[in-house]
Design a protein that fits this description.
GO molecular function: ATP binding; protein serine/threonine kinase activity
Pfam family, one: Pkinase
InterPro entries: Kinase-like_dom_sf, Prot_kinase_dom, Ser/Thr_Kinases-Pseudokinases
Shape: globular
Order of helices and strands: HHEEEHEEHHEEHHHHH
Protein name: Protein kinase domain-containing protein
CATH class of the largest domain: Mainly Alpha
Number of strands: 7
Organism: Phytophthora fragariae
């Protein structure tokens, strides 16, 4: 196929390191010859790019076709394609996804490249878009706050995926869980995608601030060591989005009654334990009646609040979250 007009064309040989050898180059070369990655390599010419679906901090995702089937094609942004660190990050995500086999984790189709600048990760295409877009449409349409069967099922789908990932030894951390990284099928079945590029093992740290956002756990914001409980915190924030539809903390006012719009201030307050997400049963001034029974909402409030506890040791495990959501879903069915 013809590469996009913004593709950079230069051969893999241009990445040959100068002596002394750089550690990053050595890691990249190791990934390129990795058996798992090469076993997933597919011919670049069989992938056709159609239209842009979304853009991230260093990648963009296109709708494409492979063997006449629709796929999602993740590529580096034009400005990051010369960065060996970003090439390595994308290949690392490929390697992580290659080990995943779960109905609620997006399926990896393969990886393709002719030149490193054109490397792309190919995965299943989720026709329902991402959870953030769905919740934004709910807010526009004045869909009731709270939880119904569909929202509870989405939450359970994600919790089951995290349970699977955290069951590995050592656990596989998502490290980038947020509503835009939860994709939906046409039937609104949820699957998680876009794994973070941090070290996927317990007690790691996140260098720099580029990966920090409103779903990030306080210990990560503080630059401390973190483990699977950081994913649980992010899940708790997503749970609040499912409840209220809006971006995290956007409905919370500051001391003077103004909306908190400065992300740096929000993250600082979260890191200090001065700010956390709220749920419908504990929040005041809601303009729409919750769609769920009060008993169900109280159960969700208790679960969500435990997920976003400041101290990681007080947060439940993913398996405990999934168990509780399953009970709440049964509770909802019994009440309705």
């Amino acid at each position: 196929m013809t590469a996009p007009s913004h593709a950079i064309s230069y051969e893999m040989s241009s990445f040959k390191p100068q002596r002394p050898r750089n550690a990053g180059v050595q890691r990249l070369e190791g990934l390129l010859i990795d058996e798992d990655i090469n076993s997933l390599r597919i011919p670049r010419e069989l992938i056709t790019i159609h239209r842009l679906l979304c853009s991230g901090s260093y990648t963009e995702v296109f709708l494409g076709t492979y063997h006449d089937g629709q796929v999602a094609v993740k590529m580096l942004l034009p400005e990051t394609r010369r960065s060996m660190d970003h090439v390595e990050a994308l290949l690392t995500e490929v390697k992580i996804m290659a080990t995943m086999d779960h109905p609620h984790i997006v399926t990896l189709v393969g990886v393709a490249w002719d030149v490193l600048a054109d490397i792309c990760m190919v995965s299943e295409y989720m026709k329902g878009g991402d959870l953030r877009a769905l919740l934004a449409s709910y807010e526009t349409e004045s869909y009731p706050h709270g939880f119904d069967r569909q929202k509870l099922t989405i939450a359970l789908n994600v919790a089951l995926a995290l349970t699977y990932m955290h069951s590995f030894q050592p656990p596989v951390l998502h490290a980038n869980l947020k509503s835009t990284n939860i994709l939906l099928s046409a039937e609104i079945e949820a699957k998680i995608s876009s794994f973070g590029s941090v070290n996927q093992r317990p007690n790691c740290t996140l260098g720099g601030s580029s990966g920090l956002h409103r779903w990030t756990a306080p210990e990560v914001l503080m630059g401390e060591r973190f483990d699977a409980k950081a994913d649980i915190y992010s899940f708790g924030v997503v749970l609040s989005e499912l409840d209220q539809h809006v971006l995290p903390y956007s409905s919370i006012n500051g001391e003077l009654g103004q909306k908190l719009t400065n992300q740096s201030i929000v993250l600082m307050m979260v890191a200090r334990g001065e700010l956390r997400v709220e749920f419908t049963s504990s929040a005041s001034g809601r303009t729409r009646q919750a769609s769920s029974d009060v008993h169900v909402m109280n159960s969700i409030d208790a679960l969500g609040t435990s997920c976003v506890a400041l101290a990681p040791e007080y947060r439940p495990t993913a398996a405990e979250v999934a168990y509780n959501l399953h009970k709440i879903l049964q509770q909802y069915t019994n009440y309705w």
